[in-house]
Automatic annotation (TrEMBL):
Keywords: ATP-binding, Kinase, Nucleotide-binding, Serine/threonine-protein kinase, Transferase
Every Protein kinase domain range: 51-330
Organism per entry: Vanilla planifolia
Family, as annotated: Belongs to the protein kinase superfamily.
GO function terms (MF aspect): ATP binding; protein serine/threonine kinase activity
Entries under Pfam families matching the protein: PK_Tyr_Ser-Thr
Amino-acid positions noted as binding ATP in the UniProt annotation, renumbered to this chain: 79
Protein name: Protein kinase domain-containing protein
Length: 380
């Protein structure tokens, strides 16, 4: 369905997008249709002070993001693709297509786009508190702005945004790159899931698509990393890793030695098996958290990141579990086999992560994220 984007040679497609009917607001958390438009390159040059370095918010493999201010005083974020190519054109088209279809309070809103010459730019609402990544591991981490209430709100909000993509968007959307740097935070620290350049639209009745692997090492579901089988369940796995990251303040992969790495699930599972939940909590919380909520978040995280896709919950179920609504299911989580030490051998229910083996070709981008660019070589 999306392979038509690789054949784009003009911007007629984007003109058609402007006429597309957006969400009617009937779904939970959905926003009513809002206006977005085509920006001129001159207008965006003016808004960003000619893409001045001082306005740069971040940089990745796709290019750079700049802060800007429009003539009416409203603040924007502008993603500027690094170089023009068929690959960049497709990523640009996919993101505009997806954002043009969906509206939800926990998804980053599209303000418009610009396509002049070889320039490809996407304009979003500006998020003053930047990304979850910046608060957990980046330059905001020393400010300790993420208290427990904010973390729970971020967990539930981002889950609701992803649940909207999976269950209410038409066609359904697989994000394929759920991670801390793609969860942005508005002025009230409400979560907005962002960056839909790797997204896939899934027609009704289709359970998965087989595709080239895209995403970030540490967040990839094993069946996706090994076989390229992308489904909603892959996003659930990535979200489980994100929840553990949010609860613990740790990164998805920890380097124990030059040759040995440990995933966050491998670290957390023995602690849960020993009922040592408090040891999982981010030290920056200084013990200020609700124990029952922490336990709930961690249990949900580990079930989401189960090595077997069929044993993972749906995102609808994840939302209810995080909110404490699914009482019976929540009560049964602790009795799941994965939390019984005598049934676990070397954490086999979870995939070990080693980017230097198994034929996986990994490429680092400017932010240090590890982008999977090839499927595992199954013949080696």
């Amino acid at each position: 369905m999306l392979n038509r984007f690789s054949m784009l040679r003009s911007m007629d497609f984007f003109s058609l997008l402007c006429c597309r009917k957006l969400s009617d607001g009937k779904e939970p958390g959905a926003r009513k249709s809002s206006t977005w438009r085509v920006f001129s390159l001159k207008e965006l040059h003016s808004a960003t002070n000619n893409f001045n370095y001082d306005n740069k918010l971040g940089e990745g493999g796709f290019g750079s993001v700049y802060w800007g201010q429009l003539w009416d005083g409203s603040q924007i974020a502008v993603k500027r693709l690094k170089v023009w190519s068929n690959k960049a054109e497709m990523q640009f088209a996919v993101e505009v297509e997806v954002l043009g279809r969906v509206r939800h309070k926990n998804l980053l809103s599209l303000r418009g786009y610009c396509a002049e010459g070889q320039e490809r730019l996407i304009v979003y609402d500006y998020m003053p508190n930047l990304s979850l990544q910046s608060h957990l591991h980046g330059h905001h981490s020393a400010e300790y702005l993420l208290d427990w209430d904010r973390r729970m709100s971020i967990a539930i909000g981002s889950a609701e945004g992803i649940a909207y993509l999976h269950h209410h968007a038409t066609p359904h959307v697989i994000h394929r790159d759920i991670k801390a740097s793609n969860v942005l935070l508005d002025s009230d620290f409400q979560a907005r899931v962002a960056d839909f350049g790797f997204a896939k639209l899934i027609p009704e009745g289709v359970t998965h698509v087989t595709t080239r692997v895209k995403g970030t090492l540490g967040y990839l579901a094993p069946e996706y990393a090994m076989f390229g089988k992308a489904s909603e369940s892959c996003d659930v796995y990535s979200f489980g890793i994100l929840l553990l990251e949010l609860a613990s303040g740790r990164k998805p992969i920890e380097k124990l030695s030059p040759t040995v790495k440990r995933s966050i699930t491998e670290w957390a599972l023995p602690l849960v098996q020993g009922k040592r939940f408090k040891e999982i909590a981010d030290p920056n919380l200084n013990g200020n958290f609700v124990e029952a909520e922490l336990e709930r978040m961690v249990l949900v995280a580990l079930v989401c990141s189960h090595g077997t896709p069929d044993k993972r919950p749906t995102m609808h179920e994840v939302v209810d579990l995080l909110k404490g609504k699914a009482y019976e299911k929540l009560a049964s989580l602790e009795n799941d086999d994965i939390f019984k030490p005598d049934l676990i051998r070397n954490n086999r229910e979870f995939a070990a992560i080693d980017g230097s083996s198994n034929g996986i070709c990994v490429q680092g981008d400017a932010k240090g994220d590890m982008k999977q660019e090839a499927v595992v070589n199954l013949t080696g």
